[in-house]
């Protein structure tokens, strides 16, 4: 925390599992009231910028974090809204709008996808199938494999519970680099909790502060046990920031 005192802060945080608790159904996730109150306080600090960067689509994230003045980045940072509400995209985003539509269409036409939630975002997709039995899941995975072979422009991260389909070359690291360029006089802090956040932690190595919510914080990050500790950290950040304001 001493690194932060007296400095302008660029606070960037992941959404799911970091500032919002996981839910079985991603559509049922919401921010806790006290977290909303903390985030609102951040937007009132003149020497603090807050960005939420998520794998969710930007439109979805805007509903989840309905607070003015926060920078919101969806699709792993590839589509983001700045503080003034202007939307920016990763340079290759236009190549992905059509293919995402086609992929979503392909999956929804497949009869084995009954029971799979196809989460279509601006330039990415997530397939949620954690509720399926072993046999059905195997069938779903076959179709996903077929799609993967036909769509090398995407990275397919296939897991037991779901598959993340992300444009090749896109990750939260790109967005964080953009923020560092835009706010060179702000000290960057990043919080994340899973593999999609590792790039962000890596980018800040030696030039910022990174926190990992979970049991085994990767090199270059500090561990936080869960949402309670995230809130504690945010409150400390607010206090340090306010103290600097009072002193100036
Ligand atoms: O970068 P994040 O904000 O962490 O987003 C990553 C993905 O999060 C969501 O899925 C995950 O959280 C769901 C809600 O708790 C959970 O049901 C699901 O199993 C998780 O994979 C979101 O739905 C995805 O779009 C994001 O890419």
TrEMBL record:
Signal sequence interval, chain numbering: none
* Pathway named in the protein's UniProt entry: Glycan biosynthesis; trehalose biosynthesis
GO MF terms listed in the record are:
metal ion binding; trehalose-phosphatase activity
Q: Name the Gene3D superfamilies for this protein.
A: HAD superfamily/HAD-like, Trehalose-6-phosphate phosphatase related protein, domain 2
What's in the keyword line of the UniProt record?
Hydrolase, Magnesium, Metal-binding
InterPro entries with a match to the protein in the record? HAD-like_sf, HAD-SF_hydro_IIB, HAD_sf, OTSB-like, Trehalose_PPase
GO BP term, pick one: trehalose biosynthetic process
Entry's EC annotation = 3.1.3.12
Q: Which cofactor does it need?
A: Mg(2+)
What catalytic reaction does the record list? alpha,alpha-trehalose 6-phosphate + H2O = alpha,alpha-trehalose + phosphate
The record's function comment reads: Removes the phosphate from trehalose 6-phosphate to produce free trehalose.
Database matches in PANTHER family: TREHALOSE 6-PHOSPHATE PHOSPHATASE
Q: Which family is this sequence assigned to?
A: Belongs to the trehalose phosphatase family.
Q: By what name is this protein known? A: Trehalose 6-phosphate phosphatase
């Amino acid at each position: 925390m001493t690194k932060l005192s007296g400095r302008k802060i660029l606070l960037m945080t992941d959404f799911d599992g970091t500032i919002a608790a996981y839910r079985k159904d991603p559509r049922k996730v919401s921010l806790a009231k006290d977290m909303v109150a903390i985030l609102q306080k951040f937007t009132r600090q003149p020497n603090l910028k807050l960005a939420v960067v998520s794998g969710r689509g930007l439109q979805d994230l805007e509903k989840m974090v309905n607070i003015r003045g926060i920078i919101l980045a969806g699709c792993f940072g590839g589509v983001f809204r700045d503080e003034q509400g202007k939307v920016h995209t990763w340079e290759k985003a236009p190549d992905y709008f059509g293919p995402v539509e086609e992929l979503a269409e392909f999956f929804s036409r497949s009869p084995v996808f009954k029971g799979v939630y196809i989460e279509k975002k601006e330039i990415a997709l997530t397939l949620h199938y954690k509720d399926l039995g072993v046999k059905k899941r195997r069938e779903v995975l076959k179709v996903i494999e077929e799609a993967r072979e036909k769509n090398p422009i995407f990275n397919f991260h296939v897991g037991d519970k779901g598959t993340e389909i992300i444009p090749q070359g896109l990750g939260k690291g790109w967005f964080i680099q953009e923020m560092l360029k835009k706010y060179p006089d702000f000290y960057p802090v990043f919080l994340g909790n899973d593999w999609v956040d590792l790039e962000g932690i890596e980018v800040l190595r030696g030039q910022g502060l990174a926190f990992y919510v979970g049991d085994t914080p990767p090199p270059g990050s500090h561990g936080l046990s869960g949402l309670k500790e995230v809130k504690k950290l945010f409150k400390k950040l607010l206090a340090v920031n306010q103290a600097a304001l009072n002193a100036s």
